[in-house]
Amino acid sequence: MSGFLPDIASWALRGRSEGDADGANNEEQQGQEPIRQLSEEEVRAKRMARLAALQNQAKDTAAAADDDKMDVDDAGGDKEPVSTLSASDKMDIDVVDTPVASASQPVASKPDPIVTAPVASKPPPPDVKPAATAVEGGEASKNVQKKRAREPPTPAEAARRLGRKKELLLRKTLNITLSSTSSTTTSSFPDAVPISVDDPSVTVQSISEILAARLAMAPKSPALQTTPPQKPGVISYLGWCHRRAGEELKELRMSQEKRKNKAGADVGIKELEDILEETRKQVVSYAASSLMMPDLFELGNDGALQLARCLSASAADPISSITFGLSGPSSSFYSCLCEELLSQDPDAFESVIADTVSHFSKALSKCDTVLDAGGGSTEEGIDGGGLVIISGLKELCTHKKAAGCLTRVPSFLLPAEGSEKSKEKVTPPAPTFPSGAGASAQQQRFFRMVQAMSAGRGGYLRRSGPALEKETLLGLVLRIGLPMENPSVSSSFQNAASRTMKDVKQSIDGMRRQLRIYQDKCNELVRALVTAGADARGQVMNWIIDALLVNIGADAMRPDKSKVSSSQTLLNLAVVLLKLCEPFVANEKKAALIDPGFVSFPEGHGGVFTTEGDNAVPRLSESPDPATKPYKPKNSFIPQCFFFTARALHLSVVSGSSYHMNILRQVNHTAWQLRQRNVNAQSDPNFNHILSMQYANEVSLLAPEMIADTLRFFDLTAGFILRIDDSQLPHMPEHFVDDMCDITTFVSRVEPKAMQGLGLGNIFKAVVKLLSPKYAHTVRNYNLRAKLGDVLYDVYLPPNVDGRSSVPSSVSCDPLTGGQPYLLSDASAQETLAPSLLLLYGEVEHTGYYQKMSHRAHIAALLKYLWESNEHRNAFRRITQKKESFIKFANGIMNETNSLIASVMEKLPEIRQVQVQMANPQQWATLSEEQRETITSRHEENEREVERALPLCNKTLQMLGYLNTDNDIRNLFLLEEMCPRLVNMLLHVLTKLVGSKGLELKVDNPENYNFRPKEMLRDLCAIFASFSSAHEFQVECAKSGYYNKDLMTKSVKTCRKLNLLTGESMELFETLVEKVEAAFRHVGDDDALVADAPEEFLDPLMFTFMKDPVLLPTSDTIIDRSTITQHLLNDPVDPFNRKPLTVDMVVPATELKEKMEKWLDEKRAAKGK
Fold this sequence. Notes:
Number of strands: 9
Strand content: under 5%
Radius of gyration: 45 Å
C-alpha cells in the first residue's frame, strides 16, 4: 500500500520514514548502528510539520485508495469457509479454520500439530492391540492430545499460535481483519471491517498504519457496512477501541497471573501486551489529532459533535461510555484524550471543549420540558432530550480541566452590567403571514396590523432574565423542567374536574419522577463545576450573582416577563443551591462557618444584598447602625451558598407559593360561583382550565423532596438567627424571616404531609425570640410580626386543638422532651410567649381590617391553649404587674368584639334574605340580569365579611371568659378606666343576641359561617356570672345606657331554658339581676344629686359629673381621668387639638377636685335635712 496511509503510519510511528519502517525488523540490519529514538515532543513537532503535506497527498491518492480497498463480497472467486468468532472469544484459542501468517514467519504450509483426531507416526508395537471401537479410538486420541499438550510447542508452532492470537486480538480491539494488498483471496467476518495493507503482520509498529487505514475510509464505504453496524465516526470508534484494548489487556494480565507457574506461559505475552498498550496510545493520539484538525479524516470532520454525542451516550449506557475507565475515571478514553490534547496544544484543547459545548447549547435550546423526547436529529445535532444532553455535559466535566474550559466559554456569563453589549436589545422576529394570492386584501391588512402591533414586543436586553435562560449555558440547562404554562404539562390534566384524585396523583407522581431525575443531573453538573477548581467555582458564583441580580423583580405579584426569567428557571436554581447547602445543613460544625458579615460585604455578594438604590434589600431593622466588624470568613464558600440560596428561595419558591395560593383562591371562588348558579363544575371549561393549572403548578412547586429541603434550610436559617449577636441581627435581610414564615405556613396549609419527620425546632425558637419584648423594636414590621404569630398557630399548635388536625404531631413536638409540645416545653416560651402574644394582639391592628381578624383569631386560640397549661400560668400572673400593657390589650378585645358583633348582626339578616330569594326560582327569575348580579355581588361580600368576623368574635368572648376566672386579671377589668367599657361591650352584645332575637335567626349552613348563637350567649352569660359579685361591675351595669331589666331577665330565662349555664354559674347570673336593680336605684339617687352641678364639674366629652378631673397639658383642658384614659387607648392624641398625648403626661386637677368634693358634701347635707 502506498501514498497517504503509509505516511500516516510513519507519522504516528515516531516520525520514521517508509524505508526505516520497512527495515526495522530486517535481521540483516541488526549489525548497523541503532537509530536514535525521538522524544515525545519531537514526535509531535514532526507530526504537525508533515500534516499539511499529508493532507495534500491524501487528496491526490483518494481514488487510488478506493481502488485498493478490499471487496468484501467478491463474487468472482470461490471462498473458503471461515469461522465467525465473536468478540468475546478467548485470546488463547489455538485452532481456526484458516491458518494465518505469524508476525515472524510466512504462512505455514504444514498442518497444525494439534488436530481433532489422533495421527500415528509409526505402527503400534506387537503387544498392543489396535483400537476395535470408536470409543477406544477416541480415548487414544485424547491421550495423544494430552501428551502433546504437555510437550512444549516447537518454534514454528509457537509463532503460528501467536499470529492467530494477534489477529484475533486485532478483531476484538479494532474490529477489523487484515489481508495483503497483493493477495487475490480474502477472508471476511460479518462483524469486522476488512483492511488491506502491504504487510498484514501485526506488530507494535504496524498498529499506527492499521489504524490509519481504518480511519481513512470514506463514510459510505461498503466495507463499513457490517453486522452489527460499526461505531459511527472517529471518536466513538476510537473510544470503543480504547475500552476494548483495556479490557483485553486486563484479561491478558489476569490470565498470565493464573498461569505464571505453568511452563511456557510467558511465550508471546509481552508482545501482546505491548500491542495492546500501543493500541491504547494510538487511538488516543489519532482522536486528538482528528479533533484538532477536523479535515484529517473524512470520518472525523465533525469531531466536536461526535465527542458531544459520545458524552451524551453515557445516559443510556454508562459502562460503555468514553468516560468510564477500568481503573477509574483517569484511565478512561475521555480523560486520556483530554490529557493528550492538553499536552499537544492547550489552546486547541480550549477550542475543542468550546466547540463541543456549543453543540450542547444548540441542543438544549430546542428543549422546553423534561418530557421532550429529543433535542435534534442525529444528522443535525445531539439525539435525545434534556436529560441526555445534560448527562453529556456532566460527563464532559468529569475532567476538571475540561470543566474549567466550560466556564470560560464566552456564553457562560451575561455581559457585564453597564457594558454596551448589556444594553443591546434582542427582538424576536415578527410573525409571518401568508401574502399575495394566499390571502384576501382584508386578511393582508389584518396581518399587517398584527405585525405592527407585535413589533417591539417580546424583546429583552442582553443582560436580563430572559437572556440568562436563552443565551447562557447554565440558563439553558436550568430553564428545562415542567412549567405549568407549557401545553405538554397542562394537557396532562385535561378534564381535571371529572378525574379522580388517585388518577391525578398518579399523573403528578409520574411527572415528578422525571423532573427529579433531571434536577439530580443538574445538581451533579453544578457540583462538578464548583469542584473543578477555584477559577471554575468563581465563574459559577458569578453566574449565580448575575441570575439573582437580573431577576430582582421576580418577587412581584405580576413579574415583567421581558425582564425576569421563567419561574421554572428560578425554581431549578433554588433546587441546585439547596443541594450545594446539604453538607452544612445537617452539620452544626460546618453551619457555624456561616459568617453574618457577608451581607455587609459588597465585594462578596456582588450587589445581591445592596442597601442602596431601587434594588435595595430591606433589613430587619429600619436603620441599623453601620457594620464595623470586617468580613474575614474562615470559609468563603459556605456563606456564599447560604446567602445566595436564601435569596434564590425568595425569588422562586416563596414567590411561587404566593402565586399558588392565588390559584387556589380562584379555584374555590369559581367553584362557589358555579354552585350558586347550580352549574355542574365538571362540565365547566373555565373551571377545568383553572383546576388543570393548579395541578400543573403543584408538580414542580410541591415536589416532596424540594419542600423537605426548603424546610430544612429555613430551620438552618432560624438556627443562624438564634446564634448571631444582637448587634448583627438588625443587618439581616428582612425577607429571611418573612420567607421562613411564608413557607412554613404555606406547607402546613397546602401540603402538611410533606412535613412528616422533619425537625423544625429552630424555627419555633426563632419565632419566640423575635416576638419577645426584647426584640420587639428590632422587628418593627407589623405584618411580619403578625406572620410570626401565624407560624405558631399553623405549625406548632398541636393537632386537634382549635379544630386542627392536618400538621403531623412530630412537627409541633420536641423529641428531646419526650414528645411534649414546643409551646409547653420550651423554656423561652414559658417565660415570654404569653406577654408577647398579648402585645401582638394589639399590634396587628395595623395590618389591615380583614387581615387583623385572622391574625387575632389565631392569637386568641394560642392564648387559650397557653392559659390551660400550668407551664404558662406564672407568665400570665406577671402580665397583671404591667397594668398599662394589659389595659391596652383588654381595650383592644372590647373594641374588636363591639365592632364584630355590630357587623355580623347587620349582615346575617341580609344573607338570610338573599338565601330565601335564591331558593325561589320563580321569584329569582323575575329579576333582571343586572339586578341578580348586584344582589349576588353584595351577598358574596356579606358572606366573606361574616366568615372572617365570626371566628374572631367567638374566640374573643371565650378569651374574656377564661381570663376573668383569675382574680388578679379580673381586678384589672374592674379599674375605673376599664369597667365602663367592659360593661357597655357585654350589654351591647347581649342586646344583639337576645334583643334582636338572634337565637331565632336562621341561615342556611350556619356552620359555614361559624355562626353559633347559643354558644355565644353561653360565653357571654358566663362572663356576667364571673363579675356578678363585684360592686363596681353592678354599678356600671346600672349606669350603662344599654341596661334594661327586661333584657337581663330574658337572658336568664333563655340560659336556663337551653341549659347553657349550670350550677354555681347559673346561680350567680340569676342574682346579678337583683344586684343591678339595687345599684340602679342608688345610681338614680346620685344622678339626681348632681343634676344641677356647675358646668366646670362636667366632663367636656361625656357631659357626666367627673370623679377624678385631670389637666391635659397639650390643650389646658380639664377632663375626667377615665374618659381620657379610654380615649388614649384608641388614639394617642389630645382630643381637642390632635397633639400627641400619653396618660403619663396628664396632671391631676387638685384644686378643682377639692372644690367638687366640697360642693357634693354641701348637697348631701342639704338633702339630709
